[in-house]
UniProtKB/TrEMBL annotation, chain A:
This is ATP-binding cassette domain-containing protein. Residues 5-246 form the ABC transporter domain. It comes from Siccirubricoccus soli. Gene3D superfamilies: P-loop containing nucleotide triphosphate hydrolases (3.40.50.300). GO terms for molecular function: ATP binding. The keyword rRNA processing does not apply. It comes from the Bacteria. The keyword ATP-binding applies.
TrEMBL record, chain B:
CDD domains: TM_PBP1_LivM_like. It is found in: Cell membrane. This is Branched-chain amino acid ABC transporter permease. The keyword Membrane applies. It comes from the Bacteria. Pfam families: BPD_transp_2.
Length: 250, 416
């Protein structure tokens, strides 16, 4: 199997504190890969490193054959790796439609055109509407993103990420703060909309991880202690003591 | 699948009343040359220039949320470029008709804005503001140095050369020229906001980090918006150069940079035409009140402070809120709020004018002289057509009461 996203010996230090301590990770093409681990294990930091939000202290990250480390977030997004955020990050003062049209125009490299009116770009507008439809936001097209309900904002966040048509999608706790029903609906939505893409998900809810993902990597204290299929991870004694055990006790 | 979806409305009054307002304003601008005397026409010309400058400044703020404290640099660059071009035309070395001279200012503003914008927009927030301030102070400090470029203390002068039968010798023709360019500039700034680049610039102000992760080079977007803003500022400067036929380096000073900031936030930064309201109001205020009292800058400053404190949306925000209320069938409430604002403003104005004029009289040389001749410690003050003791307790108590009462009324009116 070919790895589409590959991390080798990735290290991140903040001053004297070493948060990521040599992570090796291979995310295979087309798989749904979960990254789990206790609080403070470094999951979000690892996402920030892959997406270019933070710079590596050591090691390398490759997308296909291309080095990602050292590139800007914008460059990484243009290479086909898109991410969502744990804390909803959308354009609150703009309508759902405009949020999506912006992402569509960004992907088409038309978002800085200054000699045409945005309203004249009907094909981008049509795609934005279709993308709203795909996450069930069609009835909310004209609503300012800030006025959406929380689950709708999460859906918009997902749609923004997917509007880049990325080969690799990084989702940071896509169901955080949702009720059980909302979370279940979101998992369905993710399954449906990320069909055929490579997915790397940080998620706390074990139910969701086991339902959504093909393989799981467990991050503890800045190191990947195991990578395997969900059933194998669930029965892995190291993982149980390091992580799942804690979760059961808690 | 249809895609007939409206643009996001920004904080704006209902579209019908806005259309009526714009139509009335345009009509007034067009008939003004037939009605007004030269002095008022010159004031109107300066109001148009200040309006364009404020719109240019607010392009950066309203879209990218970048607050520039140094836009005088680009305004001044436009003025100097135009004066130099006019001088060249006068000497016969440049064949550019006067109506096209403002293009030189536009170009100068754009070039300087591109360089300075690329630098300043590396940072955002306070640091951005400080960099823009530093750049304009730097340009200001060059003022006395390069004589042939800036003309030293006395500055540079040029003449408006006739073109195609127009002498451009009277205020009327200058007004029409400035009006045409100001309207073109305002229209261009309005259209900028509706292009993909303008919408993306607005997204920079909303959430720059997210935009980066959508693959956008936000620094380039900010630089482009800065450049557009500086170009329009340069155009405004060019219009002032054409109107004044003179410029000196004091235009790079802090006052010129503060003007568009004050105009924008008094008028209302959240709506496109808000800055125009502020610019027209303050230009008219300076022209009329400036004749009556030397304290007009103080009054303008107090006005600015009160508006920012009590109505963060500016005057346009107040008007929009009132119009929305009446559209919602709460016309009586809107009328009441308007009456409260007017009454509060009147009380505050009376108090501030009384205190300001009395103090300014007591601290003047003439008053010292009156003291010596009358032998009184505090001879009566003669101001505002009255003669009264500057120590009169009842008058000061009344002024204090009027001020407090006025502020309370204003606060009450602003409450939603």
């Amino acid at each position: 199997m070919t790895a589409t996203l590959e991390l080798k010996g990735v290290v991140k230090r903040f001053g004297p504190a070493e948060i990521i301590r040599g992570v090796d990770l291979r995310v295979l093409r087309g798989e749904r890969h979960a990254l789990i681990g206790p609080n403070g294990a470094g999951k979000s930091t690892l996402f920030h490193l892959v997406s270019g939000h933070l710079r590596l202290s050591g090691g390398e990250i490759r997308l296909g054959g291309t080095r990602l480390d050292g590139r800007s977030p914008a460059a990484i997004a243009r290479l086909g790796l898109a991410r969502s955020f744990q804390i909803t990050s959308i354009f609150g003062g703009m309508s759902v439609f405009e949020n999506l049209r912006l992402a569509v125009l960004a992907r088409r490299r038309r978002a800085t055109v200054a000699w045409r009116l945005a309203s004249a770009m009907t094909d981008a507008a049509e795609e934005a509407v279709a993308r709203a439809e795909a996450v069930r936001l069609r009835p909310r097209l004209d609503t300012p993103a800030a006025d959406l309900a929380y689950a709708e904002q999460r859906a918009l966040e997902l749609a923004l990420t997917l509007a880049l048509d990325p080969g690799v999608v990084l989702l940071d706790e896509p169901t955080a703060g949702m009720s059980a029903e909302e979370a279940a609906a979101t998992v369905d939505l993710i399954r449906r909309t990320t069909e055929g893409r490579t997915l790397l998900v940080v998620e706390h809810d074990m139910d969701i991880v086991f339902r959504l993902c093909d393989r799981i990597s467990v991050l503890v204290n800045g190191r990947v202690v195991a990578t395997d299929a969900p059933a194998a991870i669930a029965s892995n004694p190291d993982v149980r003591t390091a992580y799942l055990g804690d979760a059961v006790d808690a | 699948m249809t895609a007939s979806v409206a643009e996001t409305p920004m904080a704006a009054p209902p579209s019908r009343s806005r259309a009526i307002g714009v139509a009335l304003g345009s009509l007034l601008l067009l008939v003004l040359p037939a009605l007004a005397t030269d002095r008022y026409l010159e004031t109107a010309t300066r109001g148009l220039i200040a309006s364009l400058f404020a719109l240019a400044f607010n392009l950066l703020w309203r879209h990218c949320r970048l607050l520039s404290f140094g836009h005088a640099a680009y305004f001044g660059a436009g003025m100097f470029a135009t004066i130099h071009a006019m001088r060249a035309a006068e000497a016969g070395s440049l064949d550019l008709p006067l109506p096209l001279m403002p293009l030189m200012g536009l170009l100068a503003g754009a070039v300087l804005g591109l360089v300075c914008g690329a630098l300043a927009t590396i940072r955002t927030g306070t640091y951005f503001a400080m960099i823009t301030l530093a750049i304009s102070e730097l340009v200001h400090s060059f003022g006395p140095q390069f004589g042939s470029l800036f003309g030293g203390e006395s500055g540079l002068s040029a003449m408006r050369m006739p073109w195609a039968g127009f002498a451009f010798g009277d205020a009327r023709q200058v007004y029409v020229l400035v009006l045409a360019w100001a309207l073109a500039g305002a229209a261009a700034l309005w259209l900028f906001g509706m292009t993909p680049l303008g919408r993306t610039a607005f997204a920079v102000g909303e959430n720059e980090t997210r935009l980066r992760f959508l693959g956008m080079r936000t620094h380039a977007v900010k630089t482009a918006t800065f450049c557009a803003s500086a170009a329009a500022s340069g155009l405004a400067g060019a219009l002032l150069a054409v109107a004044n036929e003179n410029v000196d380096y004091s235009i790079f000073g802090g006052g010129a940079s503060a003007a568009p900031v004050m105009h924008t936030f008094i008028g209302g930064a959240g709506t496109f035409l808000g800055p125009v309201l502020g610019a027209v109001l303050l230009t008219g205020f300076g022209s009329i009140v400036g004749q009556a009292t030397r304290l007009w800058l103080l009054y303008q400053g107090i006005f600015f402070v009160l508006v920012v404190m009590l109505a963060p949306g500016g005057l346009a925000g107040l008007v929009a809120a009132g119009l929305r209320r009446s559209a919602d069938g709460q016309a009586a409430k809107a009328l009441r709020a308007t009456a409260l604002v007017l009454a509060g403003a009147l009380l505050v104005t009376c108090a501030v004018v009384f205190a300001g004029e009395t103090l300014s009289e007591v601290l003047s040389d003439a008053y010292s002289a009156a003291r010596a001749t009358t032998g009184m410690r505090f001879p009566p003050v003669e101001r505002l057509g009255l003669a009264y003791s500057p120590l009169s307790l009842p008058l000061w108590a009344a002024a204090a009461a009027a001020f407090l009462g006025g502020v309370l009324l204003l606060r009450r009116a602003m409450r939603p």
